[in-house]
Amino acid sequence: MQRVLFHSTIFGPVHSRRLGTSLGVNLTPNDGKVCSFDCLYCEAGFNAQGPGTTGFAPRAEVARLLEAKLAEMLSAGDRLDVITFSGNGEPTLHPDFAGVIDDTLALRDKYYPGAKVSVLSNSTRIGLPGVAGALRKVDNNILKLDSAVTATMRLIDRPVSANFTSEKVIEELKQFSGQCIIQTLLVRGEHEGVTIDNTTPAEIDALIRACREIAPRQVMIYSIDRKTPAEHLVKVPREELETIASRIIAETGLDVTVA
Question: What's the whole-model pTM score?
Answer without folding.
Answer: 0.94
